[in-house]
Amino acid sequence: MASSSSSTSTSNSNGSKSKYEAKLRYNVDRFAKILSDEPQDSSLVQWLQESYGVDKTNQLAQLSSLSPSSVQEQKTLLRDFLEWFRTQFPYYRDTCNHCGAKGCQFRGNHPPTLDEQTPSPNTTTTTATIIIDTTEVSYCPHCQQLTRFPRYLSAMEIVKRQRGRCSEYSLLLYRILVGVLGLPARWIVDWANHVWAEVWIHEKWVHLDPCEASVDQPLLYQGWGKKQTYIVAFQQRGPDPSSSSSVTNGNKKNDTAHCPSSVVDVTKDYTSDSWETIQERRAQDGVTQEEIAAALDRANADLQQMTPSDIIATYSTSRTN
After folding, report:
1. What pLDDT does 80 receive?
2. Are 167 and 151 in contact (CB under 8 A)?
3. Is 223 helix (H, G, I), strand (E, B) or coil?
4. Beta strands in the chain (DSSP E)
5. Which of 22, 36, 58, 313 could serve as 17's disulfide partner, Cβ 3.0–4.6 Å?
6. How large is the average pLDDT for residues 83-111?
7. Count of alpha carbons within 13 Å of 14, Cβ hemisphere only?
8. Which Gene3D superfamilies does the entry link to (predicted)?
9. How far apart are CA 245 and CA 21, in angstroms?
């Protein structure tokens, strides 16, 4: 994710969206675009089975059906998968496209070109163009050339290009969990510039970070020195993982119990700091808990009442982080 301002102000007196709600809406828009990528899941299944192996893929799909006493086995399967994932998808660190030198200097976000929106060769897609969040442009002081880094929101395009950061790789992991393995999952956005995923295993949301190959280490980022303030979880409509009537049978689920698409504040899950400390940080930004709750309510109403395409058409897509 690109860097963002650390300040988050309250709503303006003229009724315009606060920085908090504007950033929330931006991420709801991104999530809607991730959901709109669902038609590519069949290609994703084929790729994962060919690349990771049919047997290993089937083992992952059976995670939820393992007994509660097999939690360590489940974590081992997930950790092995993320270690493999990290070797397939290296973290992009501002390397020049022209001379290969490192240390390119960020020059801003630009609209994607038509070529960047054209699917890679041999990519099966139902549309003539693919969704890009933005294109980052950097300057190389060694060869004086500009390097463009499109931030794709299409799982198969990320697979083909194997170039990304936490934004791309958390998106890809989320689509694998939901679209390939049929597991309840959430996409997690930390407004202090990181993104990861969660999977539901035995009455618990388990943290998964594809860039760190990390499983169930929710305090990892606090160890980096981050003061967690705003972290939200996005989940699409599907079988309710907390309901006993949502029974897993392989990767097929009983649809009698459903949870709606939702966005939830999960900041407390990723820090050992007290709730009072989190609120103090937000107060320093000029953000009240009432404002956050109201913004989340509005976002949830839209997620539950609108299709992803409607949200994409309605929400502002200007980059705010």
Report:
1. 97
2. yes
3. helix
4. 105-110, 132-139, 146-152, 185-190, 194-200, 205-209, 214-215, 231-235, 238-239, 248-249, 252-253, 258-259, 262-265
5. 22
6. 95
7. 1
8. 2.20.25.10, 3.10.620.30
9. 35
3-class DSSP assignment, residue 167: helix
Name the nearest CA neighbour of 145 among 95, 109, 111, 108: 95
- What does pTM read for this prediction? 0.87
Please choose, from the candidates 257, 208, 294, the residue with its C-alpha nearest in 3D space to the C-alpha of residue 18.
294
The dotted CATH code for 25-36+166-314 is: 3.10.620.30
pLDDT digits 0-9 by tens, 251-265: 444 343 456 689 999
| pLDDT-above-70 percentage for the chain | 83
First to last CA, the chain: 7
Instruction: Give residues with Cβ within 8 angstroms of 287, minimum separation 6.
Output: 8, 9, 10, 18, 20
Q: According to the model, what pLDDT value does residue 14 have?
A: 41
pLDDT digits (tens, 9 = 90+) for 39-56: 888 999 999 999 999 999
- Structure tokens given for 104: 């390119």
- C-alpha–C-alpha distance, residues 189 and 262, integer Å: 13
d(CA 261, CA 268): 21
Please tell me the distance from the alpha carbon of residue 90 to that of residue 82, in angstroms, as a whole number. Answer: 12
Which two structure tokens, joined as six digits, stand for 203? Answer: 């009455």
The answer to whether the beta carbons of residues 187 and 195 sit under 8 Å apart is yes
With a cut of 50, say whether residue 35 has pLDDT above it.
yes
DSSP output for 264-305 = EE-GGGG-SS-HHHHHHHHHHTT--HHHHHHHHHHHHHHHHH
> 93 vs 13, which has greater pLDDT?
93
